[in-house]
Design goal:
InterPro entries: Acyl-CoA_Oxase/DH_mid-dom_sf, AcylCo_DH-like_C, AcylCo_DH/oxidase_C, AcylCoA_DH/ox_N_sf, AcylCoA_DH/oxidase_NM_dom_sf
Radius of gyration: 20 Å
Protein name: Acyl-CoA dehydrogenase family protein
CATH topology of the largest domain: Butyryl-CoA Dehydrogenase, subunit A, domain 3
CATH class of the largest domain: Mainly Alpha
Shape: globular
Family: Belongs to the acyl-CoA dehydrogenase family.
Cofactor: FAD
Order of helices and strands: HHHHHEEEEEEEHEEHHHH
Organism: Mycobacterium deserti
CATH architecture of the largest domain: Up-down Bundle
Length: 333
């Protein structure tokens, strides 16, 4: 496996970065947070650009490139949930025009005369309140459900542009035709973990970029604070943590692209490393900004909150470290 982008991937990265900088500037993110601006036109831009068609496993690295840039921009659309949680479960039933998400727990399925009945409540569902389709993971299989048939309520969270919802199922009848028995739910979870990891990396990079810009301009005792060794050490720690997490996230994307059995371990390592990176970057980013970093007027807050959300969703670093330890303990070397 090559861990360097080829010429096409570098061009794709530049294209995605330029497009997102133009279509999703910080002013748009702030307008969504402060004024409740509708991000649907931005979502339609992604759809029209063909980004929602990057569902083939062979495109895992190209999708990761887009997700990193969206994480850097604090994307307010349901792209992450649609492409990394819903699409891998929906498979051939995925419609690139529709937003979707996955429901991973809290719902039980039992048979009746007409098919299946779903009951239960799922908590902390990413974009559960604005998805058009739901892929519901149960012990009986994965079910495709129209969002109009469930009750979804957005939960207040610290990231003002992130949608987290509580989704309730009350005797929702699903025919056998909407039971996706051929879905590889384990592989889909690896995609979801990798997507969150690379999104967190993008947010960490944004924090680092803002911090570096600040320490170059902010002066103390007549010189830029970036010349102080203590400040430089913190910036280096942020850079190293971000680069390590980025390398593991792209390695995980490569294992998905190549259908490599190491993807189970790689996705857990990527998620754990991204979670640990945000801890370092979050702490040092705030410290380098000083009191300014705590103000609503500073755009740093959006990247900080997106990085922290990436750590908490689908299990934190400690949980995935434990999984990695179990894998190595069980391995026969």
């Amino acid at each position: 496996m090559l861990l360097e982008f080829d010429a096409d991937q570098r061009l794709w990265q530049e294209t995605a970065r330029d497009a997102i900088a133009k279509q999703c500037p910080p002013t748009l993110v702030r307008s969504v947070a402060e004024d409740g601006a509708d991000p649907t036109p931005l979502w339609k831009t992604y759809v029209d650009a063909g980004w929602t068609e990057l569902t083939d496993p062979e495109n895992a690295v190209e999708l990761a490139i887009v997700l990193e840039e969206l994480g850097r921009a604090t994307d307010p659309t349901p792209f992450l949930a649609t492409m990394t949680q819903f699409a891998p479960l929906a498979g051939e039933r995925f419609d690139p025009q529709q937003a979707g998400t996955a429901v991973y727990g809290g719902v039980a399925a039992h048979r009746d005369a007409d098919g299946w009945v779903l009951n239960g409540t799922a908590h902390h569902v990413l974009d559960g309140d604005r998805a058009e389709k739901l892929a519901v993971v149960t012990e009986a299989g994965v079910f495709l459900v129209d969002a109009s048939r469930v009750t979804a309520r957005r939960s207040p969270v610290f990231d003002p542009v992130l949608h987290i919802a509580e989704v309730s199922f009350a005797d929702v009848h699903v025919p056998d035709s909407d039971r996706l028995s051929a879905t590889d739910s384990e592989r889909a979870r690896h995609v979801a973990l990798t997507g969150l990891a690379i999104t967190t990396v993008g947010a960490c990079q944004r924090i680092l970029d803002l911090a570096l810009e600040h320490v170059k301009q902010r002066q103390q005792f007549g010189v830029a604070i970036g010349t102080f060794q203590a400040v430089q050490h913190k910036a280096v720690d942020m850079h190293i943590a971000t680069e390590r997490a980025r390398a593991l996230a792209y390695f995980a994307a490569l294992t998905i692209s190549a259908d490599d059995p190491r993807r189970r371990l790689a996705s857990a390592m990527a998620k754990a490393s991204a979670g640990e990176a945000q801890g370092v970057v979050f702490r040092h980013g705030l410290q380098l900004f000083g009191a300014m970093g705590f103000t609503w007027e500073n755009d740093l807050q959006f990247a900080l909150k997106r990085a922290k959300a990436g750590e908490l969703l689908l299990g934190g670093a400690a949980e995935h470290r434990a999984l990695i330890a179990e894998e190595f303990d069980a391995a026969d070397f």
